[in-house]
Amino acid sequence: MNQPLRFFTFLLPAIIACHTNGQISGTITVNPDGSGDYPSIQSAVDDLVSQGVSGPTEVALAPGTYSGMITIPEIPGTSGQNRVTFTSSTGNPEDVILTDSIASDVFSLNRGHIKLEYADCLTFKNLTIITHDESSFGSTFTFFGGTDHPTAAYCLLDYKLAVLAYDPIGGASAKHI
């Protein structure tokens, strides 16, 4: 083997290792004061999407109020065994409040506080979720496409409409839960 090829063969694994991140599993924390792994829920979601998960993953939210819409696309690696759970770090739903900060556009499907886009096997647990949308279309969760097996457990919901589902083939459907 000539010298340049030998050097490249040695260097390539090191280059790849520097530019790839390992998959996430276990508990990660979100705290807007900067003391957690992430300062916002969306930043944690963005890393989950870019890195994927390799086991059950808990996103523990520090007590406080989190404002803004959250969009969760498909997270690589999720399955029935590798669920991603968003939960209050204290276990008390009154300690963690997720609230949207804007009214949605009644003429678009860009509404809903938590938007799941083909995201499977997610759990929302011990959270308070408040939707301020004054239209009749305000919803806590919006599902786009093939979102499968979402769970909301021990959550307090304050909403006009709890769920808005959009299927690109069948259109939109909504229901109170």
Please characterize this protein's 3D structure.
The protein is α/β, with parallel strands linked by helices. It has one domain: 3 Solenoid (Pectate Lyase C-like). The protein is built from two helices and 14 strands; from the N terminus they run αβαβββββββββββββ. A five-stranded parallel β-sheet has the order 1-2-5-8-11, with helices on one face. The chain has a five-stranded mixed β-sheet with strand order 4-7-10-13-14. A hairpin with a 3-residue loop joins strand 13 and strand 14. It starts with a helix and ends with a strand. The C terminus is likely disordered.
Give a quick rundown of the structure.
Helix content is 16%, strand content 38%. It has 177 residues and is of the alpha/beta class.
> Would you list the SSEs in sequence order as H and E?
HEHEEEEEEEEEEEEE
- Share in helix: 10-25%
Q: Please count the helical segments.
A: 2
Report the CATH C-level class. Answer: Mainly Beta
The N- to C-terminal Cα distance equals 67 Å
Low-confidence stretches: 7-20, 162-177
The CATH superfamily is Single-stranded right-handed beta-helix, Pectin lyase-like
Q: Might you state the CATH topology name?
A: Pectate Lyase C-like
The percentage of residues in β strands lies in 35-45%
* Structural class label: alpha/beta
Overall form: globular
CATH architecture: 3 Solenoid
Major sheet details: 5 strands, parallel
How many domains? 1
